[in-house]
Amino acid sequence: MKKRLLLFLYTLFVVLSASAQSRVFKQVGSGISTSLHSILQDGSLVGYLTFTELEKASKDSFNYEITIMDENLNDIGKVKFRQQKLNLRDVAFEQDMLCLAYIKSDVLGTTARHKISYKIAARKGYVSFFAQFINLQGEITKTFEKKADVDLYVALKEYEMGIRPLKEDIQLKNISGVGFAAFYGDKTKKPLLTFNAAGEKISERQVKEVAESYYLHTAGDDIYLLTQKAQEYGNGYTLYGYSGTANSPTLKLQLKDKKQRMLDILGFGNDPATGKLFISGIVGGRSDNTMNDVYDIYNGKLQGIFKIDINGAHKEDVKTVYSCWADSTHGDINNKGYIASAHGHIVPRPSFRDFEGNTYFLGSRLTAKKNKGAMIAGIATMPLLIPYYVLLATGSFGTYSFDDVLVMQMDKNGKIHYIDSIGTELYKRKNAAPIFKGADNCTFYSLTNPDTKTSFLIVKGEKDITIYNVHDKKIVRKIARTNNEVKTNIYPAKDGHIIVSEYDEKEKSTRLSIEAI
What we know:
InterPro entries: DUF6770
Keywords: Signal
Shape: globular
Pfam family, one: DUF6770
Distance between the termini: 24 Å
Strand order of the largest sheet: 1-4-5-6-7-8-9-10
Oligomer: single chain
Number of strands: 35
């Protein structure tokens, strides 16, 4: 759904060597905890930082070190400071200022693991939202702190299991030309904070909307909060927009079409050409007829795709286009979503927008077959148990498989086109089909080169990683994921580049290389 923050967690490592666009990290012993984070501005990667917890400075405080790197992994500078226990949650950059958002506490991570100790600490301790503002000279110019309403006794017990104390984790985004927006939720409130680039608080909104999950996003100087009522397909997406200094949402957009069909989000980000927010995804059934497994896709419950252009945080700025399968050009896709030229259905995954206004939809190809006779016999013999389980064990009820990645396009006029397929390993199973969102034979995401305005698709299969040029419709590179003792992976990097991560099991080291695509 969203464009994920590039975040590599190296539990314990030290830099062995460094050069432009290449760096090696090696695992070491206990005592030092370091994490590597990306620095984002307007959704684009502009650098990296490592956050290191060094030795304990006192009973409840630690020495910390931040190493700031440019987009080529070259060191820019270091910041050293002492503070109580910190857990870095998010990073953003705006107007030559770096903002770091933490969970801060004087008892988490420093209290002895015992019920009596927890009770004592819960009476006097605290948890807070804590923000640092660091300039390009490596100076901490300002900090901000706000106490959180947390049941400390419960938080101390859950901390042992790695559960963070805030009900909604901290999210941080830059606001172009303004500063930063931060969101989190504790036991009683959900603050939406805004700061200028100097670190001064501009406003504090209290989000009253109740949901299962929240996602913070910014486009230009507008702030958006996407909520979902349940972590299931097509359930309860609502977008709230905040324009200017308005305390209440100036936009409330429920993701349903005029026929009350649920809309599930696959793409959520800023248009690369306009910088405005767009949403794209699939059109499902009504709320009482949601999809459960891949056979529902086979049976046509997935009815089409949609795109929403949001040019501002007001209702009149929203433009939505729906396209059902029957609307595809040349009749290549039937009303159940079967793509004749691809010989299968698409299991929808990420969606993205190119510089020309086209919206792409990606997903594995699904082929499925049900044995209706065996299913009827299974239902009839279910009370007897043994015949039913014999049919189940022998795969009599049906089969399904995933293989090639399919690429579909909704052009800027809303027309659907099947574009191409990319070969991947076959994944074949019998009988009970999985929930469609948890089923796949690979993972993939898109990257864009802004200089050439070219879009690429990265397909991670079990054996190989494939880089595919969407506009030229061809594979430009293939990388083996394992080579003896070296495991290779690929992540997004600066615009037009990828990070190639190579983990050497023998040396216990990771090499990161930034390469152009």
